[in-house]
Amino acid sequence: MTAPKFPKMLNYTALKQQFSEEENLVLSPPSETHLNFSAEKQTKTQEGLTGTRLRSYAFATLTRKEYSKADLIEKLCLYAANRDEVIELVDELAQENYQSDQRVAEMTVRSQVRQGKGPNRIKMALRHKQLDKDLVTEDLTEIDWYEQAYQLKVKKYGTEVAQDAKIKAKQIRFLQYRGFEMDAIMKAIRRKVSED
């Protein structure tokens, strides 16, 4: 047998002994000062934010994204010490127009319309954000839902009016899922190119 290509450079038995001694050192119980430090650290994290620190966090949160009043309260309560202080702070922010449910509702409507959603899906999104749909009733009435439904149908299925009942049913289900009313759906799937 020939000599190995790589000579044996490490003494494995010495390394095993060395590491087994280090493991025994690591497994020894921690000192009492270590335990006191971790207990002190835990109480500090449980205290939560108050006063100016809470206010600063609220402003930092609002600079990144618009929140509804209910969502902002829930987000701040995760880090605050007192829920009543959070509610008082959010009310103050709303009075000074740093937080506005109206703005959030309008942004939600615009975003949902861009995504091809109908009035029913928009109302669901507003309910999910705990916003009153009365904030944007005027905006919802200004939108031409027939045209929105037709444009969505054309984008997905083309301009041809389907004669097959299965294809019509598929188009109806698609537009219903997107949140359109039945009268807008029926006009959209029956509309011919000549009517444009």
UniProtKB/TrEMBL annotation:
It comes from the Bacteria. GO terms for biological process: regulation of DNA repair. Keywords: Cytoplasm. Residues 100-138 form the RecX second three-helical domain. Its main location: cytoplasm. Residues 143-189 form the RecX third three-helical domain. Modulates RecA activity. This is Regulatory protein RecX. It comes from Acinetobacter sichuanensis. The lineage of its organism: Bacteria, Pseudomonadati, Pseudomonadota, Gammaproteobacteria, Moraxellales.
